[in-house]
Amino acid sequence: MTKRVKVAGKVVLVMSFCLVLVLLIPAAGRGFDAGGPGKAMNAFVQAMQTKNAQGVLAAFSRRQPWRFIGYEIGTGRPLNSNMVSYAQMSRDFQTRGKWNHFFFDEPNGYTFRLNFKKGTVWKKAGNTFFRSGTDRSVRHYIKWRQEGGKWVIAEIGDTSP
Q1: Which of 39, 50, 77, 130 is deepest in the core (most CB within 10 A)?
Q2: Are 87 and 67 in contact (CB under 8 A)?
Q3: Rounded average pLDDT over 53-61
Q4: What is the pTM of this model?
Q5: What average pLDDT score do residues 36-40 get?
């Protein structure tokens, strides 16, 4: 026996003990990324390659800081860890401060920007983790998390001398 029932403005069919729901609800929330962290990572790479400060900032949460971890070359040992807020990054981008240099200085062999030269591949390693390069002693990575229907950067790891 089949019955037609209205649920949340949609007509669904109820069959015996089986309920079949097909809800066509548009994605809620501004900036929804149906492509997951891969699509967000591609947008971030493009922003880095074109030195688009607003595009880079769009990859970060305005509400919660992200973690930066610096690693030693060769040993992979963590050297430092900082929590960085959106406000601090935005201010540094305007005043050409520390984070402006980190994201936008031309590659000199040890700058993070080196990982965004055309042709550099970021490989997905897990559900929310992307790694640059293949050398295990070098730790360049970006970890993403979801916030309100949008993917934002949770952590960046960088190897430096």
Answers
A1: 130
A2: no
A3: 97
A4: 0.73
A5: 93
In angstroms, rounded to a whole number, what is the distance separating the alpha carbons of residues 94 and 69? 23
Beta strand 66-72 with 78-84 is antiparallel
Instruction: Dig out the tokens for 80 from the structure.
Output: 């430092």
Place of tokens 């590659």: 107
Residue with tokens 């649920």: 7
Sequence-distant (6+) residues with CB within 8 A of 133 are 115, 120, 140
Tokens of 85: 């807020």
From the candidate CATH numbers 1.10.10, 3.40.50, 3.10.450, 3.90.25, the one assigned to the domain spanning 29-160: 3.10.450
Cα angle value 19/20/22 (rounded, 5°) = 140
Please, which pLDDT band fits residue 156 given cuts at 50, 70 and 90?
very high
**Is residue 11 classed exposed, middle or buried when 0-12, 13-18 and 19+ CB atoms within 10 A define those classes?**
exposed
